[in-house]
Each structure stands twice: as C-alpha cells, then as structure tokens.
Amino acid sequence: MSILQLKLLGFSGKIKILHLTWTAFFISFVVWFNHAPLMLMIMDSVNLTESEVNILLLLNFALPIPARIIIGMVVDRFGARISYSTLLALSSLPCFAFAMAESFQQLAWARFCLGFIGAGFVIGIRIIGDWFPARQVGVAEGIYGGWGNFGSAAATILLPGLALYFGAENGWRYAIAATGILSLAYAFIYYRNVEDTPPDVPYLKPRRSGAMEVTSIKDLFLYICTTVPLYAAMSLLTWQLSTPEADLLSTPWVLAINIIVWTLFFVQAYQIVEINAERLSRPIDSIHHYPFKQITILSVAYLMTFGSKLAVVSMLPMFFFTIYRETQAVSMIDAGLMASSFIVMNLIARPAGGWLSDKIGRKFSLTMFLAGTSLGYYLLSFIAGDWPILMTISMTVLCSIFLQAAEGAVFAIAPLIKRPITGQIAGIVGAYGNAGAIFFLALMGHVAPSTFFIILAVCALASAILARYLEEPKEFITEIMPDGTVVKIELD
Hints:
Number of domains: 2
Shape: globular
Number of helices: 19
Number of strands: 2
Helix content: over 70%
Radius of gyration: 22 Å
Largest sheet: 2 strands, antiparallel
CATH architecture of the largest domain: Up-down Bundle
Distance between the termini: 10 Å
CATH topology of the largest domain: Growth Hormone, Chain: A
CATH superfamily of the largest domain: MFS general substrate transporter like domains
C-alpha cells in the first residue's frame, strides 16, 4: 500500500474526513500549547515567578489523563462528529478565560481546564479507524497524529509574531484569544462537514457504557491493574504541585486530592467488575474474544514514546545551551533551533511508522522502532561539548525518527483490536502517554541529562521486549453488526 494511493490531494470521501480530522487535531494542539511560546510575555504582564510558570506547565498535563478516558467513552457512544465539535467549542471558553486572566490563580484554573482539549486525539483515532480499511489504517492514523501534533510547533512559530503584531503588553492576550476563536469557528465547520462512518456503514457502539467489556477473568484483573498507573500519575502530579519549588498545594489539599483520586480509582474498578461480572459468569462466544494484553502493551509503548517525547522536548533547548554555550558559543536561540529538529520529524516519521506497519507487519514494526528508540537515546547520553553540532543534530534526528515512527506503529494496531470500543482503547493508550510525560518530567529533575537518556534507553528496550508479546491479527478481524450479521474485515 503506497502513501500515494491515498490521493491526499483530493477532498472527498475518506480523504476529506482525514483532512478535516487532522486539522481539528492540529487546532486542538495549537490551543493546548498556545501559552508556551508566549510565556515570557505572560510573565512580564502578570508578574509571574519562575515557580508559577513551572506550575502552569505542569497543569497543562493534568486533565488530559482522565479526559482521554472520558472522551473515549463519549466518542464510542455519540460519534466523532458531535464529540469533536463539542470539545472544540467548549475548549474555547477556558481559552478566552486564560486570555483575560489578571492573576496567577486565574491563569492556573484556565490552564487546568484547557488541558481537556488534549483529549481530542482520541476522537480522531476512532473516526479514522472507522473510515479507512485495515490495509490503510496505519498510514492514515500516522498522518492524523503526525500532522495534527505539528500544531504545537505551529503555535511556537506563529503566536509570538502574532502577539508582536497586536503590540503593547496585551499582545499575548489577543494571540491566545485568536486561537480560541479559531477553535470555536472550526467546531461549526467540523460538525457541518463530517459523518461518523461511510454511507451505508452502521456505527458500532459498545453495549454498555462506563467500562469496557472483557472476555476472561484474567483480562478483568489486567484491566484494573492497567488503570493503576494513570491514577498514580495524578498523585505524582499532586505531589509535584506541593513541593517547596511549586508551593501551590498545602498538605491538607494534597491529602484531600489523593483521597479523591484513589476514590475515583475504586469507583472505576467497581464499574469494571459490575459491567463484566454477569457476562463472565457464563461462556463467551469466541467471536467476541480479544486479548486485553494488547491494550496494556500498547499503553506501555505509548507511555514510553509520547511521554518521553514531551519530557525531552522540554529539556533539549536548555541541555544544548548548557553544553555548547562555552565550547561553541551557542545562544539560546541557536539551542532552540537545534532542539526543534527533534519535534519537526513528527510530520514525516509518524506517518511513515504507520505506513511501514501496514506494509511489513505491525508487531515487527513496533518492536523495531522501539529498539531503534533505545539505541537513539543511548547515543544521546554521550553528547558532550566537544561534539560537532552537526553530529549532535544527526543523533537527535535519528532518535526522533524511531520515536515518532513507534508512535505511528502503536496506533496502527489500536483501531484493529475491537472496533466498537476503539475510542475507549485509544483513551487508555493516549492517557498513558500523558502519564508518561508526568513520570519522566518528575524524573528529569532528579538525575543528570546523560543518566536521564540512559534510563529512557533502558525503558525503550524493555518496551520493545514487551512488544514481542503482541498478538497481531494475520488475516481478518470479525465484527458483529447492529442487526446481528457477522462481517469479516480482511487485513492482509
């Protein structure tokens, strides 16, 4: 299957859905990261301290963890058209609130709420999986994720100039508000131009909401255990916000939030058991079976890839500046340009990872890309001030290619596990990516950069070994239509 066979220059049928949906994801990323390139202006305007800035950056990753799980259930129930349109429209409200904020507290609450738009990723995974045949789903999901993710880079490139165009000390406010207007306007465009499935194809929904149905007692316990790291990440974030450096939450607040977090865990665990108890008390037809370990393995892989990417992107500019400022007179601007080589490869590498998964095998591709990521991070651990800059950039690009391709390979598999619950599957896998960002950002502050890269290399290698236990569908997947008919969907 060639990428050219997708006829990306067209704008009808499934290609229209792809373009409209990656654009929605692109806009959601612009809104999600609209504060980062304007932070110096915001600091001066609202008189923020460095610790308050760090808190705002952390709050940006707090809500997407539960939000992706919630949105996964919503999209499976109501479809992508309503879900994405509503998310984009509602997210414009905290965006406007952030633009009008006059204090740190107002900025913090608005930024916390804006994190919900990061869940939009899950919606696109479902609709792309429904519109594209299995032979093309890897490359289509790769284009969706790779091109949409570039919204964060676009925000970095465009918003500072837009703020300067508006001028004066409030230029950043107008730039932030402009992204909110864009999100609100596109919500209407998306709603008017998208359908959840191709003509004459029914939308497959889960029979019950609140949790996924599993097919064995072992999978039931694995499902519950798989949710634990997500709540642990929220507890870790709570602790980070209470440290002397952040000093946002007092001890009573930390205790209260943790009680709420783990109460929610037990509520979800109860829902998982309640929804599956009666079903598992009797034999389940083999046609309904799917191995839940697929979801767990993909979640760990995405924690490693997307999570480490967010952490590395946040530290690379300062890392390059620190090691090269004396030996090769690199400025902060130069260091930022060097670091951009890590993220810009997302445009090409993630679609390529999905395409190769379609072409040479999903399990093999994911394993290969994770192993390459391990090698890339290991090489980055040796970077020193006497290295030629070109060599450093080459190693950075090499690592990035494998990392972003692995992200594409993860979501070349996820939509093929069980289509009626694709949104919930993508919700858990995507939430693991945000949890990984919190874990790795917390780790980064306690070890040297070289040690940090070695730890990432070990984690990537462990993920590659775990990926060998995936069970890749070889010939077809079977789905049951709403009218009870059985349909076999060919994969090869």
